[in-house]
Amino acid sequence: MEIQVMIQFLPVILMQLFRVLTNMTHEDDVPINCTMVLLHIVSKCHEEGLDNYLRSFIKYSFRPEKPSTPQAQLIHETLATTMIAVLKQSADFLAINKLLKYSWFFFEIIAKSMATYLLEENKIKLPRGQRFSEAYHHVLHSLLLAIIPHVTIRYAEIPDESRNVNYSLASFLKRCLTLMDRGFVFNLINDYISGFSLKDPKVLAEYKFEFLQTVCNHEHYIPLNLPMAFAKPKLQRVQDFFSFAVDRLTSVDSNLEYSLSDEYCKHHFLVGLLLRETSIALQDNYDIRYTAISVIKNLLIKHAFDTRYQHKNQQAKIAQLYLPFVGLLLENIQRLAGRDTLYSCAAMPNSASRDEFACGFASPTSRASLSTDKDTAYGSFQNGHGIKREDSRGSLIPEGATGFPDQGSTGENTRQSSARSSVSQYNRLDQYEIRSLLMCYLYIVKMISEGELPAY
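The line above is the sequence of Dedicator of cytokinesis protein 11-like isoform X1; the predicted structure tokens follow.
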């Protein structure tokens, strides 16, 4: 079919394909064949530079239809299932590569179908855990697992495709935080990040931080990370995010809030995950450090100019979220200052005033230590999910913490930590990195409440 003819009737063609897609049973090959036709149309539009018609279709014309038969499935369920089937067809790499490259279209269709389903079925008022079935949760998890190898293994073979699907998946999961059970979405995010390794090349490190930056750009990122009392077993459901950001900020166990521990990450998952990955990136080469530092700096700039949180108390609570970042600076203090400055910082008393603290760093002896053991235990976060570190991932572990690798691995941890500290001491940061890190530090010190720094 000529592309001009196809564009002229694009909404009709696409809607008819989606109608056929949902009215067929799983035993038929029709759903997969429909997906392949959709993929062909999407790729042709991109090749001709007409992808704006696809975006217009999603925004203005696409409206999921209710299933005509009890056996029929919804579009988001069927499309996610057929995407898995295509990604697992090892013999058809051309179709797989096209699906990865133009995955944004399919994720946008799935997201709009999910949102329409919640509104039309009046399920938007239900608790998040009851909005979608367990079967659909399993399908999304399987889709994520099917995508990971194409990003982490085939990145050199298909650079454009892997980068595109990395961004598209991040954007989709960011939308899922609005529509679905957030504990489940956190689990998906965690599983995806766990697919990356400490030995990954520069390009995969960039993918990882692009993914985190996209997810952390969620409009309600601050409420998703709000400080709260650790004694409370569950975050109660609150509809008004802004009121939640102001009213729910009560006293918090300072020992748990000030270190990048598993307990901290359990209750502040997104910021905890970002800071942990940043702590690992700071021990790597310049390009990876630059990417990680830029993500943190840009996020803090966004917080500082967010018109929703301009009150002094609101900015103070946001700064409190990032207090473990100060611990990261203390871990790398040898790379931030000269020898004379180090001596003066080490001599600074623990009772230093706010002004003194703003000019230097407190002694790092009481701060968290860096562990890089490959068998680091799972840290749990809200709704029972954990920050997994199965492949040479490190975490900042507070003194006296429990639930970490047994004593048999202590020697290996010590050797790895000592070796990394030795490398960090001589691998100095450049002026841009130091300036950016200190800008982040000054934002935290400036915005934090008067009573938090002495407690720290």
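Note on the example: Residues 159-179 form the longest helix (21 residues). The beta strands are 369-371, 379-380, 386-387, 395-397.
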